[in-house]
């Protein structure tokens, strides 16, 4: 991982082996983003996600990109339950797609969100009520939103106008009961609302 990041022009300022080390390193170095494995010592279960949640609470300005061997919407929900910005959840297999991984890392460091397509797919296949309200096109738009695409990018991918994307997004927000806010981060909240319903 260190070699991959360094080769792509990233500065790796610390590496750690457990949650306590992660929190200490972030407090010392104040990085733009921390890359965290969900499974860390001593039990290799959920220490990483718990450390990531603590990190977000103590250092909300630090981006967190977590990795997991499996697509677990409940873990993503735990991470996204707070301020849903500067957050990423990727499957470890995505590291092999170096360009995508680095793009996601930069997006999270800049305050954006990067959700693995498999996580989004799991969300859409559970039959949860909010998703049942969406049309097929709205599901596709939300899928692309969850992957971090802008309205312009979605319009280009679906070969429709940006205005059409805006209308689909507005409909999604309405069906998810997400009124406008001062920060207006409904794009992220639309995904978070669904992930929260996937919690056990």
Automatic annotation (TrEMBL):
PTM annotation (4-aspartylphosphate): residues: 37
Keywords recorded for this protein, A-Z: DNA-binding, Phosphoprotein, Transcription, Transcription regulation
HTH luxR-type domain ranges (all copies): 127-198
InterPro entries, A to Z: CheY-like_superfamily (IPR011006), NreC/VraR/RcsB-like_REC (IPR058245), Sig_transdc_resp-reg_C-effctor (IPR016032), Sig_transdc_resp-reg_receiver (IPR001789), Tscrpt_reg_LuxR_C (IPR000792), WalR-like (IPR039420), WH-like_DNA-bd_sf (IPR036388)
Gene3D superfamilies, sorted: 3.40.50.2300, Winged helix-like DNA-binding domain superfamily/Winged helix DNA-binding domain
Position of the signal peptide: none
SUPFAM superfamilies referenced in this protein's UniProt entry, alphabetically: C-terminal effector domain of the bipartite response regulators, CheY-like
The protein, known as: DNA-binding response regulator
GO molecular function: DNA binding
Domain Response regulatory per the UniProt entry, residue ranges: 1-107
Record-linked PANTHER family: TRANSCRIPTIONAL REGULATORY PROTEIN NARL-RELATED, TWO-COMPONENT RESPONSE REGULATOR
Pfam families: GerE, Response_reg
GO process annotations (BP): phosphorelay signal transduction system; regulation of DNA-templated transcription
Listed transmembrane segments: none
């Amino acid at each position: 991982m260190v070699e991959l990041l360094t080769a792509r022009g990233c500065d790796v300022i610390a590496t750690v082996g457990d949650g306590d080390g992660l929190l200490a390193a972030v407090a010392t170095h104040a990085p733009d983003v921390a890359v965290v494995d969900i499974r860390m010592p001593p039990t290799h279960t959920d220490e990483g996600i718990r450390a990531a949640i603590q990190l977000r609470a103590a250092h909300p300005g630090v981006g967190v990109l977590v990795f997991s061997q499996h697509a677990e919407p409940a873990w993503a929900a735990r991470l996204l339950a707070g301020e849903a910005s500067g957050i990423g959840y990727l499957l470890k297999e995505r590291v092999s797609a170096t360009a995508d991984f680095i793009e996601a890392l930069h997006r999270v460091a800049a305050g954006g969100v990067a959700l693995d397509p498999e996580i989004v797919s799991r969300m859409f296949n559970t039959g949860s009520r909010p998703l049942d309200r969406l049309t097929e096109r709205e599901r596709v738009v939300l899928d692309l939103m969850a992957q971090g695409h802008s309205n312009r990018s979605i319009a280009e991918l679906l070969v429709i106008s940006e205005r059409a994307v805006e209308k689909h997004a507005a409909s999604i927000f309405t069906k998810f009961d997400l009124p406008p806010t001062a920060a207006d981060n409904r794009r992220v909240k639309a995904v978070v609302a669904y992930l929260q319903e996937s919690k056990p």
